[in-house]
């Protein structure tokens, strides 16, 4: 019998909220420069932390929770059991790296239980998460163009961060490195992978101005993430 789409549990809600809170704190710490920023100037760092925390809460929650829920709902549509589960060791790694001013986010993953997935279905389920990030990116980009807040305003900072983090996570997750989504999409359909990745990459470069060095750093982080993930998800 097919699983009900949207079906969830109190355990899943609790675990994804815990993961989201840890990610928000870790992202905010990374933005302000980690704990060394507090050592250099506690008052200024605390003020920056308070400024960016709500911004990170909006951007991370939309990009992370919607990404994972889209994996879940599409998997359920194909009859699988699917729920998000945290990795406690992964959350520790996330928080510690954020405290040192760089982020290796391993909060957990949507766990999918099925014996009947085809390679196509697995590819579509994997593609659903990055496409949701793309939708968040498009919605906030459109809203920013319509509202056009002053560059010095808090609203502009919110729009800029959500636009940046959503397309960045779409790009990161589409890298062809296991267990990232891109490895499964590529295994399913190379043309779909190429078109999707090209569109995400172009939008990321055009709207964030990210440079080649930072792109190489992201790829390096993805490789390290792959290694840490294999370790963290054992616990």
Give a verbal description of the structure.
The protein is mainly alpha-helical and 235 residues long. It has one domain (10-232). The chain is 74% helix and 5% strand. The longest helix is centred in the first third of the chain and has 36 residues, at 42-77.
List keywords for this structure.
two-stranded antiparallel ribbon, 9 helices, mainly alpha, 235 residues, single chain
List the helices and strands and how they pair.
Elements: H1 10-32, H2 35-40, H3 42-77, E1 81-86, H4 88-99, E2 108-113, H5 119-147, H6 154-173, H7 181-188, H8 190-208, H9 212-232
Helix pairs in contact: 1-3, 1-4, 3-5, 3-6, 5-6, 5-7, 6-8, 7-8
Q: Which value, in Å, is the CA radius of gyration?
A: 18 Å
Largest sheet: 2 strands, antiparallel
Shape: globular
Number of domains as seen in the coordinates: 1
Unreliable runs, pLDDT <50, ≥5 residues? none
Estimated helix fraction: over 70%
This entry's quaternary arrangement is: single chain
Structural class: mainly alpha
Mean pLDDT: 89
Question: What fraction of residues sit in β-strands?
Answer: 5-15%
Order of helices and strands: HHHEHEHHHHH
Discrete helix count: 9
**Termini distance?**
30 Å
Q: Using DSSP, what is the number of strands?
A: 2
